[in-house]
Design a protein that fits this description.
The protein is an alpha/beta fold. The protein has helices at about 60-70, 105-120, 120-130, 150-160, 220-230, 245-255, 260-275, 295-300, 305-310, 315-325, 330-340, 350-365, 375-380, 395-410, 455-465, 520-525, and strands at about 35, 75-80, 100-105, 135-140, 170, 175-180, 185, 205-210, 210-215, 240, 415-420, 425-435, 440-445, 450-455, 485-495, 500-505, 515-520. The strands form 4 sheets. A 7-stranded mixed beta sheet has the order 5-4-2-1-15-16-17.
């Protein structure tokens, strides 16, 4: 399982920039960069663990790596931007200790790694062969699902399986990679904002307990173990659906399972930020780039759960429960949300403004009047008063990324391009205006995985089962072979020394003799990722 524990830009811990050494000025020319992420090599296709395996397409990876030299030459920096492995799901290795915040010991996570390495020898050898050709170099950035790569006992096993040497395969122990010209930064993305998969002292990932060292367990990993693993056994496609966690939410909407109120509050927050993050927000920007509408953040905080409800789609079943349910769990959910939104340390002003953005946009979409009872009840009145809204925030996550990239630039002044993964949904380059006054381009490489949008999956299911009555979640039992054979990657080429970044999609079926690399925007909806 890779997607449920992914991008939770919500309300638990304060954001903190990773302290890195300043990027050094290069003495040589720039090299083309290829960024892939989120392959999630898991426990393999054995009978008892197959439902938990996320990567089933070794020929697609090999063919992609073989095709890169024809496009880019033989001096390529291949950056694997996190979650190459899936170390969160390990059904044959039981990790236990007395702390809820800690997971496997160093020895146990080594056993988990051995199982994943053994199951993906072919793929790792393909990466090693790529690294050994010409002047190619492979950089492996640990992510939240494979943070244990930061442990030497785990990394040494992986490096041996890849077959590279220190000269052409490198672990990025700082958690962030910088290009030779210092203009590009790449990281996984789980340390951005108030992500529920953050490590509190990244890139340190262990803590002591009972005289032993254990790998830290973020909230996302605990949620996977408590709420997800048993579902995936019967619905293995549940984490190949976009937007993130849409598959799990579909299941939860149709099945009653016990859920802790704080988990529910966190999961709702995730869905608000993740499923809506591509949505453009109507800020009515003037020609001088100042927003016409301003948010009174303090007033918005006072709205508590009503503000969160106003930022949810009108047809979301959880929205009605949040506003009206008399169930004790939902009463506690409201209390938890109220506390988190009121706490400046748990919820930033940028996140409050993002909720206001979404609330105003949904109100406009449904033609609600600004003085209507429904608007007042749902919190859209937060648009009155002083400003913290940012004119560049055309999509909610841009607020958070602007702050994050600005912090990176403090140690990497030449930074102009930031690439991350973690969300599994590719995003073409878009600009953010940094605190320094310069503009930087941000893009997401998506995931080197077969994925499908929820709308496309449900439409296909309805076509196949026109006369059947049943739960929509049955669509999550669709075969992996029916998913579009598409895998996304970010590529930075250089034209006369100028970086030209873009997102590309590799189309290759396991029975194909050859594949094709398309510019993502030119591909349209062929891969059904939008």
């Amino acid at each position: 399982m890779k997607r449920i524990g992914l991008v939770f830009f919500v309300f638990l811990v304060a954001a903190r920039a990773v302290a890195l050494q300043p990027c050094k000025t290069p003495t040589t020319g720039s090299r083309p960069i290829v960024v892939i992420s989120d392959l999630h090599f898991g426990p393999g296709m054995g009978t008892d663990v197959a439902a938990f395996e996320d990567f089933r397409w070794p020929r697609a990876l090999k063919a992609f790596l073989d095709a890169l030299p024809e496009k880019l030459g033989l001096n390529i920096d291949l950056v694997i931007a996190g979650d190459l492995f899936e170390f969160w799901q390990h059904p044959t290795v039981l990790c236990a200790n007395s702390s809820a915040n800690l997971g496997c010991s160093a020895d146990d996570i080594g056993k988990v790694a051995e199982a994943a390495i053994s199951a993906h020898t072919v793929e790792l050898q393909s990466i090693g062969r790529f690294a050994s050709h010409g002047g190619n170099h492979v950089y492996v950035i640990p992510g939240n699902h494979d943070a244990a790569l930061l442990l030497d006992n785990v990394w040494n096993k992986v490096a041996a399986a890849i077959g590279g040497t220190a000269s052409n395969v490198t672990r990025v122990s700082e958690g962030r990679w910088a290009s030779a010209d210092c203009r590009v930064a790449v990281e996984h993305g789980h340390q951005i904002g108030h992500d529920l998969n953050r490590f509190p002292d990244w890139p340190r990932i262990t803590a002591g307990n009972d005289g032993h060292e254990y790998v830290w367990k973020p909230w996302g990993e605990a949620f996977v173990a408590d709420q997800f693993n048993h579902v995936e056994k019967n619905y293995p496609l549940i984490d190949n659906v976009l937007p993130l966690t849409a598959g799990l939410k579909l299941y939860l909407d149709e099945h009653t399972i016990g859920r802790d109120a704080r988990d529910v509050a966190s999961f709702l927050s995730f869905n608000i930020f993740r499923t809506s993050w591509r949505q453009k927000v109507a800020l009515n920007v003037y020609s001088d780039s100042s927003p016409a509408s301003k948010w009174d953040v303090d007033k918005a905080r006072d709205l508590g759960y009503r503000l969160m409800a106003s930022a949810m789609p009108r047809n979301d079943p959880d929205r009605r429960k949040l506003l009206e349910s008399s169930d004790d769990t939902w009463k506690e959910v409201r209390h938890v949300i109220d506390e988190r939104l009121a706490d400046h340390g748990a919820t930033s002003d940028e996140e409050i403004a993002t909720l206001c953005d979404l609330a105003a946009d949904y109100a406009k979409e449904h033609s609600l009047r600004s003085n209507s009872a429904e608007v007042l009840a749902e919190g859209v009145q937060c648009q009155q008063g002083l400003a913290v809204a940012i004119a560049t925030a055309l999509i909610p996550e841009r607020r958070i990324l602007t702050s994050h990239v600005s912090n990176i630039q403090k140690t990497q002044p030449k930074l102009r391009y930031f690439i991350y993964g973690h969300t599994h949904q590719y995003v073409s380059p878009f600009p953010v205006l940094l605190e320094s006054g310069v503009s930087a381009m941000v893009l997401n490489d998506g995931a080197f995985q077969r994925l499908v949008s929820m709308d496309t999956l449900l439409a296909a299911y309805r076509r196949r089962h026109k006369n059947e009555v049943g739960e929509k979640s049955s669509a999550l039992k669709t075969s992996f072979d029916d998913l579009p054979p598409c895998y996304s990657a970010a590529i930075v080429e250089y034209n006369r020394g100028i970086a030209v970044p873009g997102v590309w999609v590799w189309v290759f079926g396991e029975s194909f003799r050859s594949g094709t690399l398309y510019k993502a925007d030119a591909l349209g909806n062929v891969c059904n990722l939008r």
